[in-house]
Amino acid sequence: MNTLQQARDQVLCQIRQACAQAGRDAQTVQLLAVSKTHPSEMLREMHAAGQRAFGENYLQEALEKIEALADLNIEWHFIGHVQRNKTKQLAEKFAWVHGVDRLIIAERLSSQRDVSQEPLNICLQVNIDAQDSKDGCQPADAAELVARISQLPHLRLRGLMVIPAPNNPQAFADARQLFDLVKDQHAHPEDWDTLSMGMSGDMAEAIAAGSTMVRVGTALFGVRDYSKQA
Ligand SMILES: *Cc1c(COP(=O)(O)O)cnc(C)c1O
């Protein structure tokens, strides 16, 4: 068995254990493989190990991989910061965009999504622990944004995405509470099923708090070398 397969099996095992500990069904947590900085061949190998959902942060790098791996049935997630002038390619090439934090971005993604495609899945990114340097809307603005974004025609607003600072389990609890609270504002509440939180270092805590999608890079692919980034 190769090492990527082993790493994935180990992460899936950690997810199952965290679910068991939290009294949750393991099927309720999805694994998003965060592949930024890693070459297409590694993604191909991870795909062969059974992984279908991959998350990328940098648009140009992602577009190259999407092209190189067009023969595989990969579900592509964009988890980086969304720049206003990059929405067209996001709308065309991805199945999910996690970092939506303003109405204008959502409006552009909706109008640029081709009508022949499935609606674009999105998560509203919330700055849940009041970090200066981080993207995301203010928690107080989330309800209004959910109400507005959930009415846009070519999007499916699936839930919230948060990236709290390390070692702050309260942030996960706050995100879970907000997730439950703003569901009432959604025009199609049946679409509201995703809480995107937890990374390599805090998967178990995120799952205990109710995460439904953990975004895992390092534990699957090893430490990133940014000097070789595409
Ligand atoms: C890079 C990244 C991850 C993965 O982080 P690891 O610690 O390597 O698991 C998850 N989410 C986002 C938004 C990221 O940018």
TrEMBL record:
Which CDD domains does this entry report, sorted A to Z? PLPDE_III_Yggs_like (cd06824)
Cross-referenced PROSITE patterns: UPF0001
What InterPro entries does UniProt report for this protein, alphabetically?
Answer: Ala_racemase_N, PLP-binding_barrel, PyrdxlP_homeostasis
Q: What GO molecular function terms would the record report?
A: pyridoxal phosphate binding
Q: Which Pfam families does this UniProt record tie to the protein?
A: Ala_racemase_N (PF01168)
- Residues forming the Alanine racemase N-terminal domain are 15-224
Task: Please provide the record's keywords in A-Z order.
Answer: Pyridoxal phosphate
Point out residues bearing the modification N6-(pyridoxal phosphate)lysine: K36
What cofactors does the UniProt entry give for this protein?
pyridoxal 5'-phosphate
Xref: HAMAP family: PLP_homeostasis
The family note in this entry says: Belongs to the pyridoxal phosphate-binding protein YggS/PROSC family.
Its annotated function is as follows:
Pyridoxal 5'-phosphate (PLP)-binding protein, which is involved in PLP homeostasis.
What this protein is called in its record is Pyridoxal phosphate homeostasis protein
Which organism does this record belong to? Acinetobacter bouvetii DSM 14964 = CIP 107468
